[in-house]
Amino acid sequence: MRPAAAECPSPPLKVLLVSHDFLPSHPAGVEIYTYQFGKALQARGHDVQVFTTEKDIGRKNLSIEVRDEGGLPVHELFNNLYYNDFVETYDYPAAASSFGLLLDDFKPDVVHFMHLLYLSVACVEEVNKRGIPVYYTLHDYWLQCAWFGQRRFLDGSICHEIDFEKCGVCLKNFKYKQTKLERAGGKFIATLREKTGLDLGEMARGVQRGFKVRAAKAESAEGKAVRRQALADDWRTGITPETSAIAKQVAVRAESLYRRILPGVNRFIAPSQFLRNKFLEWGIPEGQIDHMRTGIDLAMFEGYQHKPAKHLRVTFIGTIAPHKGAHLLLQAWQRIEPQVRGDATLRIFGPPSHNPTYVSKLEHLSLASGATLEGRLAREAVSDALAETDLLVVPSIWYENSPLIILEALATKTPLVVSDLGGMAELVEPGRTGFHFEMGSSEDLERVLRDCLSNPAQLDDLYGEDVVVRNVTEDAAAMEISYRAEIRARVEAESVAQ
């Protein structure tokens, strides 16, 4: 980060944090970190507010509600994805306009973006118009990948090299806008709630989920497997005039984001060196992007004490979605003979996914393997879950950046098994804090699990040295110094220009 003089008493800053989703509805890594970071800044005396989006057909589209989340004021824009074309998935004037109104009202000293999904590249430009310093923490690859920033292909494989034609095949079934019927239904439900107080939103979402399940069942599993295998063998078999047209749109997106984001951001923050390198390849100058490992709320683990047991307890804690890889863990566990597993247990914690077909798959796998699906795990219960865990498995099949659950496991000296790519491999040192396995390979994960089951004593030998885990309060202190330096630099530049 930009060097600065030693801290001295200064007036508090007004900081606006921007995230695509937020708590409590979306308890994932970016959202949790944004909250913890905001509270840490707040504890240092700063005025912190959050701007985010939510999809809720029970609310009027593009309306804004202000609420409180643990003492943080949250401005929630209801974006029901009523996009007219692909461009609006990343350049959405309506979202930028609402964001601009908040900028004029709050008048922040600095704006720190955590994610722009469901928002707009024009939000950065709105900040630039007002001469406010801009920070952007890169939690994933959304600037590079239109498929939710995960750089995963249809068959679950990793897009190691971005090819726009491949993007076109991948995005063929990307549903980025609502149908006329969905829009009309949403408008009716929102109007009804506004006039009568009756909220039919949850019921409507249940109907939608039912339609998704029926559509998934209607598609032949055999046909789906054949298509995915064909794409895995040679994805170019999926290229059609339609996918080539999509590829051109993706190329325009890439050029637009690069041209408009790069000059509009003062400092990029990369929580992993792996991600930093990927964005250096993308074109961010080395001096514009800092590597800062993510901190966590260590106060959660005050008084933590591991609770030993006579049998090995294996645990997964994460979102129940394909990219998190819980199915790989269950597949590996199922192949291990009962006599090898012995009394060992496997628990899967995680909020339900928006993919009911995937949830059903996990339910079948858990029954077949003897594992248990425990459902959503409250944040305050993470410490207790880790206290009853002997081996935490993080089997993600995308370039994870800095998963909070890994950092929390390190803080509690919980042995780890993680995929061998992305920020995960940086965080877990084989033989010291855990083990790696080949990303996406349930067979290699099975090998590691068998080894741990046959020799559980090796887990006791991990963490022979203290492992330093960064506190989120350190993030807040470091960012405050950086914020003030950027503000001073801007003031000095304006003074020279005058």
* Count of β-strands: 14
Q: Measured on Cα atoms, how large is the radius of gyration?
A: 23 Å
Sheet with the most strands?
8 strands, mixed
Q: Quote the average pLDDT.
A: 91
Percent helix range: 40-55%
Characterize the structure shown:
The chain folds into three domains: 14-154 and 250-297 and 472-497, Rossmann fold (3-Layer(aba) Sandwich), CATH 3.40.50; 169-248, no CATH class; 298-460, Glycogen Phosphorylase B (Rossmann fold, 3-Layer(aba) Sandwich). 43% of the residues lie in helices and 13% in strands. The chain is built from 18 helices and 14 strands. The chain has helices at residues 29-43, 93-106, 122-129, 164-170, 180-196, 201-218, 221-233, 241-261, 273-282, 326-335, 338-341, 356-369, 382-387, 404-411, 422-427, 442-454, 457-460, 472-497, and strands at residues 14-18, 47-54, 64-69, 72-78, 110-113, 134-137, 267-270, 289-291, 313-317, 345-349, 372-375, 391-394, 416-419, 434-437. Strands 3-4-2-1-5-6-7-8 form an eight-stranded mixed sheet, with helices on both faces. Strand 3 and strand 4 form a beta hairpin. Helix 1 (29-43) packs across helix 18 and helix 4 packs across helix 8. The longest helix is centred in the C-terminal third of the chain and has 26 residues, at 472-497. The two termini are 27 Å apart. Mean pLDDT is 91; it is low at 1-8.
Provide tags for this entry.
498 residues, alpha/beta, Rossmann fold, 3 domains, eight-stranded mixed β-sheet, six-stranded parallel β-sheet, disordered N terminus
Task: Please outline what is shown here.
The chain is an alpha/beta fold. Helix content is 43%, strand content 13%. The chain is globular and about 75 Å long.
